[in-house]
Amino acid sequence: MAILPKIPEYKAEWAEGEEGRWGIAIDMDLCTGCQACVAACSMENNVPFVGEHDAGYGRQMAWIRVERLWEGEYPEVRATPFQPVMCQQCGAAPCEAVCPVFATVHSQAEQINLQVYNRCVGTRYCANNCPYVARVFNWADYSNYPEPLANQFNPDVTVRRRGVMEKCTFCIQRIHKATDQAKAEGREVRDGEVQPACAQACPAEAIVFGRLDDPESRVSKLSKDKRSVKLLEDLGTQPRVTYLKGGYHGNLG
Amino acid sequence: MQRVFELLKKKEIQLLLLIAFMVVISGGAWALYQTQIPPEQPILFPHDIHVQLQIQCLYCHPGAQRQASAGLPTQQKCWACHGQLKKYWDPAAPVPLEQWPVELQKLAGYVERNEPIPWVPVYIVPDHVHFNHRPHIAAGFACEQCHGDMSKQKVAELQQTINMGWCITCHQQNSVDDPQKRIKLIDCGTCHY
User: Fold this and answer.
1) Residue B189: which of A4, A109, A159 has the nearest Cβ?
2) CATH code at A214?
């Protein structure tokens, strides 16, 4: 019997007010709510279609959604700006603490929140505890596409089975690809070199991705902008996604 | 319940149960054996001959140094050499195709039909694991550290059980003195995403 290797016990440690490594800044004044990010994300990350029937049960699996709320009493109703919401990759994530099998862990290397699909047993505690409702659950092997359709899957991303929780990964496969390329060329990753699918698809360039620990990067400048807000900041989750909101959209946005 | 015990006393029933038991055991053994033998390849490619001819691994598997997958050669790559071997193509006395070795005849068939050779990958990882050759080659690992000595193998076979314990043991051993590197190498997100 082989002696099992000793794997050190994993514990996510974050410092108070830590910036994190990767981050997104979303300019809600630029967002037109076109849903291109939703489509691009689903294509990049093998997010399956659930169909009309299951979507009616609220089982839609998009990792990013364009949220829009209505303020005020009728007839003085006005729309809030379009707000794309994905996993906020919290520094102090509420989802991590409740997973009984450590399937959602904090990556020390990339400073994001991981979902390890092969560990997940589908208790859905994490989704219950996520204040941003960013997690989706695969209820019924939606990824079982018939043969020619299965060719659309991105080989860089796992095709998840049913009974597994999943969520936005900040397109970690693209982060890996870019860091790998940068390492091979003996340099640091340039600002703007890594782009998640949502940022790449955004026609208004409302979504900006980059290094938060680099004060010169576009995203860290934007996240220190005076228009910046974080979602549910008072919960102390230290989200890595910053929203920029200043302008008024009028009645229809 | 009494009836079941009565039945079990019968010779025929005992024999039937024995046969059923043996069928299950041998079926299990057969299934286990199937996981241990190398997969059947379209061409029985002899690695040993090619390694002895001093052909580099990266000549046929060039992806290893620039991408995730090492890649398996197309029929064109094989034919680049085999289409001009002096042994068969000597202008003075060309050897007719019928007298070639059987495996080379198969290769010639693929070239003639312009059809890629359907090689069966031997070293595979599950879908939820993303192995990348490039950083391993860049870190200075030799192919034989994982794939074994190919000069002693004919058709490629699995030399190493590919599992996470094996991966992580090596990752830990190679990051003992560098905490920054260890954080990266034992991070879940490095392979699982």
Assistant:
1) A109
2) 3.30.70.20
